[in-house]
Amino acid sequence: MCPQKVRHLLGAHQFFRDFLFESLPWHMSENSIKNIPKILPTIQKKCLEIGFTMPSDLLIGTFLKSLVASKRGGSFLELGTGIGLSLAWMVDGMDNASQLISIDNDPSLTKIVSEWFALDHRVNILCQDGAEWIKTYTGEKFDLIFADTWPGKYYELEETLALLKIGGFYIIDDMNSQPNWPEGHAEKAKTLIGKLESLKDFTFTQLDWSTGVILMCKIS
What we know:
Layout lengths: L2 H21 L16 H11 L7 H12 L5 E5 L5 H9 L5 E6 L2 H10 L6 E5 L2 H7 L5 E6 L9 H5 L2 E9 L12 H13 L4 E6 L5 E6 L2
Parallel strand pairs: 1-2, 1-4, 2-3, 4-5
Antiparallel strand pairs: 5-7, 6-7
């Protein structure tokens, strides 16, 4: 192919990419998300008050809400409560028969979040070491696990995946390269992606959404 045709095709590709992802009304940004959990502004305000710098964004939140809503009467696990932003979205997608366990090892954060959800009988927030909890848990399996911390993601992975029901979802984010990643973390992320993609008893979907999402479904 001659250079002129190559340049022409590349220009057309750029045009359609810009048109699809910037011009059309369905292109989503955080500013376009309207149906947010009622507790969200309170959580965002608290982030500023205490200087919490690692909150989940709205895009992963609305994604989790939709997945949770597909599992009526479901059992859900969040590893890494943080300040409760993702938790708020997950709770917003739950019906009255659903249950959710959220775990974090920071007592200052779990204390704050527990106060917000104290009256919700569906939510159980635990202040524990995530790795120890994963290794000692003997309850029912889960319909969805969101692993937003190192336990259940970079270690205790096999044990965490074993906690899923057939048809259950496993979700992780922060898989696109981030400017605050420490040296060597990019290689860890690449290794994890390769390991997850090779699993035969799970489907694997990698999405350029939010901070980089991987969605998996247990099929056997």
